[in-house]
Amino acid sequence: MTNQPGADDLPIHDFPTATSVAEFTQNIADVRANISRAAERVGRSPDDVQLLPVSKTVPEERVRLAIAAGCTQLGENKVQEAKRKATNLADLGVEWSVIGHLQTNKARDVAEFASEFQALDTLRAAAALDRRLQAAGRSLDVYVQVNTSAEPQKYGLPPEELEAFLRELPQYGSLRVRGLMTLAVFTSDIPRVRTCFTLLRTLRDRMRDIDPALVGDGGLSMGMSGDYEVAIEEGATCVRVGQAIFGARQVPDSHYWPDAFPADGDAVAAEA
């Protein structure tokens, strides 16, 4: 496995666990304030940046507190966990965004409950989703995932394959392309992180120049708890923030990105 940062390169964050509506309200306010400052530093409007709270691994009783604090859309990595929460919390009217890799045998589930899928990177997944969505009479917003860090263990299209992939998507009529998504390299080296975000923006702009319809709204979903301010400075329109809102995660990231962790457990994937 290549391109792995050493242990000294990995970012360290100490996010306290929110256990009350008041604590969630404060955490959300703090993240939104950071979003505003980051946007203003580069002359952008904070209103152009969507905050997507990521509730993966968080117990449903705490998710309910976050919803009470104002979360109306939540992101989840694993389809099974997302479906369970969508079912059990259906009374709260929350929309669910699936942000992790999709196995095609889970396409039916995503078609049933998700309002958005942010990790589309194969035509096989596109076809499976489209078939299930057509049967359900639904459509689905999607972001196309690009591997901007060139890490072989990460999902996402190689940048050089993006245009050809986007040109195939109109045949899947139930999928609405909203933009591009990426996971930056997981490191404390901010210039390296920024390079990933800059590349995604450059790719979006290039696709727009070729044919604006290829990238739909042209959204850029990039940036997580440790790097969302950098992502906003580079043009993010959606940031996926989990731990800065919910608190440090107890389940290791290898549970969500099993191919992104070597046997010794060093992290090489980004955290939400």
From TrEMBL:
<dbReference type="GO" id="GO:0030170">
    <property type="term" value="F:pyridoxal phosphate binding"/>
</dbReference>
<feature type="domain" description="Alanine racemase N-terminal">
    <location>
        <begin position="28"/>
        <end position="249"/>
    </location>
</feature>
<feature type="modified residue" description="N6-(pyridoxal phosphate)lysine">
    <location>
        <position position="56"/>
    </location>
</feature>
<dbReference type="Pfam" id="PF01168">
    <property type="entry name" value="Ala_racemase_N"/>
</dbReference>
<protein>
    <recommendedName>
        <fullName>Pyridoxal phosphate homeostasis protein</fullName>
    </recommendedName>
</protein>
<dbReference type="InterPro" id="IPR011078">
    <property type="entry name" value="PyrdxlP_homeostasis"/>
</dbReference>
<comment type="similarity">
    <text>Belongs to the pyridoxal phosphate-binding protein YggS/PROSC family.</text>
</comment>
<comment type="function">
    <text>Pyridoxal 5'-phosphate (PLP)-binding protein, which is involved in PLP homeostasis.</text>
</comment>
<dbReference type="InterPro" id="IPR001608">
    <property type="entry name" value="Ala_racemase_N"/>
</dbReference>
<keyword id="KW-0663">Pyridoxal phosphate</keyword>
<dbReference type="InterPro" id="IPR029066">
    <property type="entry name" value="PLP-binding_barrel"/>
</dbReference>
